[in-house]
């Protein structure tokens, strides 16, 4: 969907990479040099170890930085990739600020929590209005991309198993260990309570929202 050529070498930035799941797939799939960015060095340490284990370290360079203060030169990347992270600064702000780092015709691939129906229960509306007011339908997100100077190339939503097995499952399995590491502090309990609420909301209302993946080209 992004139109990337497997015979071309790309310069890619994976913004908000976490422990590098996407970076490792990209490095294994494409001929590329990847700058993997996260503000937590501990995550980047995990990525560096994993990249070495699978012999991809030569394609991945890690950078500890905030996504709203990136030290990139203008027009320096062919692809900007960001999964499950842009909400930290907001979709509209992120795509606008990051556009400067893309070469002309460069590709943006970013995931964003998205309404999948035009109407939804008030309980769900209230929850997301408090958690992330920028949640919207895909059609409105496309407008945001177009107004920011991008041409949408494609869009799809993640399957249920991506949320339930790939994301929430591991989080739920880590609750007890997280509490033990943090001495069952009130702060840790509040975090777990918030996670439990988020999982419960998704299980109850999964027909109304998902993570949408947006692919667009810089005009």
Reconstruct the topology from this structure.
Layout: E1 10-15, H1 21-29, E2 32-38, H2 41-53, E3 60-64, E4 77-82, H3 91-98, E5 102-115, H4 122-131, E6 136-137, H5 138-147, E7 150-157, H6 160-173, H7 175-181, H8 186-205, E8 209-218
Parallel strand pairs: 1-2, 1-4, 2-3, 4-5, 5-6
Antiparallel strand pairs: 5-8, 7-8
Helix pairs in contact: 6-8
Could you explain how this protein is built, in words?
With 219 residues, the chain is of the alpha/beta class. Helix content is 42%, strand content 26%. Strands 1, 2, 3, 4, 5, 6, 7 and 8 form an eight-stranded mixed β-sheet that branches. It has helices spanning 21-29, 41-53, 91-98, 122-131, 138-147, 160-173, 175-181, 186-205; strands at residues 10-15, 32-38, 60-64, 77-82, 102-115, 136-137, 150-157, 209-218. It is globular, with a radius of gyration of 18 Å. Helix 6 (160-173) packs antiparallel against helix 8 (186-205). The two termini are 17 Å apart. It contains eight helices and eight strands, in the order E-H-E-H-E-E-H-E-H-E-H-E-H-H-H-E.
């Amino acid at each position: 969907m992004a139109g990337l050529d497997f015979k071309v070498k790309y310069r890619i930035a994976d913004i908000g990479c976490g422990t590098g799941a996407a970076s490792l797939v990209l490095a294994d799939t494409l001929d590329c040099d990847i700058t993997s960015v996260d503000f937590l060095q501990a995550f980047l340490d995990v990525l560096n170890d994993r990249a070495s284990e699978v012999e991809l370290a030569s394609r991945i360079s890690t950078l500890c930085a905030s996504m709203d203060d990136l030290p990139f030169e203008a027009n320096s990347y062919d692809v900007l990739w960001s999964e499950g992270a842009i909400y930290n600064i907001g979709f509209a702000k992120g795509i606008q600020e990051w556009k400067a780092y893309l070469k002309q015709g460069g590709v943006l691939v970013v995931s964003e929590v998205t309404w999948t129906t035009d109407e939804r229960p008030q309980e769900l509306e209230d929850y997301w209005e408090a958690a992330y007011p920028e949640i919207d339908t895909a059609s409105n997100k496309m407008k945001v991309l177009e107004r920011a100077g991008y041409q949408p190339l494609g869009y799809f939503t993640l399957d249920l198993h991506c949320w339930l097995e790939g994301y929430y499952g591991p989080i739920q399995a880590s609750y007890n260990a997280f509490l033990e590491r943090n001495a069952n502090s009130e702060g840790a309990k509040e975090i777990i309570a918030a996670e439990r609420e988020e999982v419960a909301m998704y299980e109850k209302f999964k027909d109304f929202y998902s993570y949408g993946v947006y692919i667009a080209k810089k005009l």
